[in-house]
Amino acid sequence: MGVTVTCPRCDGPLRPPGLTHSEWLCDKDGPVQPMHRVNRLGDDVLASLTEKAGRDGVPLWCPWPLPAGWLMTGLAWVGDDRRGVTATAVACSGPTPLGDGPADVVLVAEEPGVGLGARIAGLPGPDLGPDLAGMAGEAEAHAKLKVAGRPTPLWSVDGPEDRSVYAGEAKGRWLYAIAWPAHAGYFFADNPELRDLTEWRPAELFFGAMTRRL
């Protein structure tokens, strides 16, 4: 599969491991794990990633059923041969309910410190974990999704005005749920179910043009 490899924290270029260093290096963020963003979508690409992520126990979250007119529009993961997959991202796109243009949703599952979710959400990184733990102890959840069959609380996080950001935890990883434009956050208010594609693949899942949100 064709992929683009960049830094998960800033999307900048990386220098691969070599004779002088054993880590992937970003000029801005230093040693990081590489983010791999697929350049095309298809059944073979999805099957390859679900096998890879499933082997390392990292979920690949997808809302299901998708609203009418919605398609999968992006896939990415973070990791290397030494540590395996440490984060995944799924993008879906479709019309807003108001008919005022397209909307995009990205779901990120990641281990602490990876930085992919914070970067896509437009938040200071690399890890929202400590702040999220504080919110969970002080405020009621702003949304509750059914994730892998279990009610899962999510908290709204203040980010850039052009998007809605929710965050929580599922299957032992941080879960980021991000929507553009901001009013497309309705998507999560309707309590959709998130399914792990490493365990189950709907036959009616179709692919659209690649999103630029990843």
Summarize the structure.
Helix content is 15%, strand content 38%.
Please provide a written account of the structure.
The chain has one domain. It is 15% helix and 38% strand. It is built from four helices and 14 strands. The chain has helices spanning 43-55, 116-121, 129-138, 186-189; strands at 3-6, 14-15, 24-26, 30-32, 35-38, 61-63, 71-80, 84-95, 102-110, 143-147, 150-156, 164-170, 173-180, 193-196. The longest helix has 13 residues, at 43-55. The chain is globular, with a radius of gyration of 16 Å. It starts with a strand and ends in an 18-residue tail after the last strand.
Tell me the helix content.
Answer: 10-25%
Shape: globular
* Total domains: 1
Number of strands: 14
Radius of gyration: 16 Å
Structure keywords:
alpha+beta; 4 helices; about 40% strand; about 210 residues; globular; eleven-stranded mixed sheet; three-stranded antiparallel sheet
Topology:
Elements: E1 3-6, E2 14-15, E3 24-26, E4 30-32, E5 35-38, H1 43-55, E6 61-63, E7 71-80, E8 84-95, E9 102-110, H2 116-121, H3 129-138, E10 143-147, E11 150-156, E12 164-170, E13 173-180, H4 186-189, E14 193-196
Parallel strand pairs: 10-14
Antiparallel strand pairs: 1-5, 2-3, 3-4, 5-7, 6-14, 7-8, 8-9, 9-13, 10-11, 11-12, 12-13
